[in-house]
Amino acid sequence: MLGVVLVDKPAGVTSHDVVNVARRALGESRIGHAGTLDPFATGLLVLLVGSATRLLPHVSGDPKVYEAAIQFGAETDTEDLHGTVVRQAPLPGRAAIEAALPSLTGELDQTPPAYSAKRIGGRRAYDLAREGAAVTLAPARVRVDRWEILAWRGDESAVAGCDARVTCGGGTYIRSLARDLGRAVASAAHLTALRRTHSGAFDVSDADSLDALREGRARVRPALDALPHLPVQALSDVDLRRATSGIAVDARVDGSWAALTSEATDMLAVLAERAGDRWQPRVVLREG
Question: What residue stretches are annotated with the Pseudouridine synthase II N-terminal domain (predicted)?
Fold first, then answer.
């Protein structure tokens, strides 16, 4: 099996739980996801199946869109509603929040949450945090493209919370954005809800439920759907055999990378990088 499966993850399960359901339902052990969702979060989880998992480095950084509910006045150790309150502060005004958003837009050095899947000395940070260890993670460069405030809660001079839509690059922690927004307005903040609505070219409205996946009713999309931004070049049988053997073939489309498909099936066979006037195969996809 080879392709892409979109799942609308419910709250209360981990991204790895969804992968395990997919492995059982599809009878395929090679399944990975293009970006973790926290257990409390819902929304779009993009699964790559079979040899399509080789595309993960090329799609994990795709832009993502989230809808987040932010509560002001308290910061928690997990940076979400399930954590212990570690700091309280006065509620901020709406004008202060709006003025702070530009400072949290663009390229940012973001400190990940202590309760995260980041590894420290081979162990997950959240395991160390649960054991009471002091967890210090190095900041990581992330990109936030846009904030949109969808709704306000509370008075204009004392905002209890807001709903926001955030467009960002892969690897961005929305929990940490909420934390940093609270600090930027001399308050404190944490997330009470989070939903991923888009990942790359995929929309959660096109995703299957976890039950549909479990029951074998989830749609398996072509692997090519994961690379909509790349030019496509169809190969003859002769060139296809060459490319899938790692041999460069003539480039007939523009771009620095290309998706090479079979003329006979239109299926993605090779992800290739330009080398002069030829395509050098970098990722070869095979059924089975």
Answer: 23-174
Q: Give the tokens for residue 223.
A: 């692997």
Which secondary structure element, helix H or strand E, spans residue 30, and what is its range? none
What residues act catalytically?
A: 38
| Residues paired with 281 in a beta bridge | 272
Could you tell me the pTM of the whole model? 0.92
C-alpha closest to that of 191 among 11, 9, 7, 6: 11
Domains of the chain: 3-60+200-224 (3.30.2350.10), 64-195 (3.30.2350.10), 230-284 (2.30.130.10)
In whole angstroms, what is the distance from residue 63 CA to residue 229 CA? 12
Q: Judge whether 203 and 44 are in contact, CB under 8 Å.
A: yes
Whether 37 contacts 48, CB under 8 Å:
no
pLDDT along the chain (288 residues), means of 10: 96 96 97 93 97 91 96 96 96 98 97 83 80 83 98 96 97 96 98 97 97 97 92 95 96 96 87 96 86
